[in-house]
Automatic annotation (TrEMBL):
Top EC group: hydrolase
Entry protein name: Lipoprotein signal peptidase
Key words, A-Z: Aspartyl protease, Cell membrane, Hydrolase, Membrane, Protease, Transmembrane, Transmembrane helix
Entry-linked NCBIfam families: lspA (TIGR00077)
Lineage: Bacteria, Pseudomonadati, Pseudomonadota, Gammaproteobacteria, Pseudomonadales
Predominant localisation class: membrane
Bilayer-spanning residue ranges: 74-91, 100-119, 139-159
Amino acid sequence: MNGFPMTARVQPPTLWWGIAAVLALIDQSLKLGVEHLYELGSSVAVGSFFNIVHARNTGAAFSFLADAGGWQRYLFVVVALAVALTLVAILQRERHWSEALGYCLVLGGAVGNLIDRSLRGFVVDYLDFHYQGWHWPAFNLADICIVSGASFLLVISVISPASPSKR
């Protein structure tokens, strides 16, 4: 086997579920703060390449299906709920800590955005990076968790491509 050994972790699944819950709570706290401190559509420059914004996204990543008429809210809630429940089940089985961390990050982000879609009907985005008029689409902590966790899992699979049953 190449890379680092993928032995079973000793941490209980409740640790990973707890970390995911804390990430979702931090995400929700930040979103509530943005909603209370900034008007919708506002933008506050923090530096030459970063703004805090108050944006609403009724779509998925990069506003995919944002103008679909409202039905997408229910689709995204069902998909996020299915992903979250699957990740809860995955984390219940023994995993190496690094693999569990990747799943945990994705779970925390999925739950954070699931709460938004369920309660608000949209996701609150507030991080806006830009350079010379080019803006990356606004995003939030939940998005960071999802992308970081998925990227981490991808790197782990490349470093140690053992089958999941052997991890």
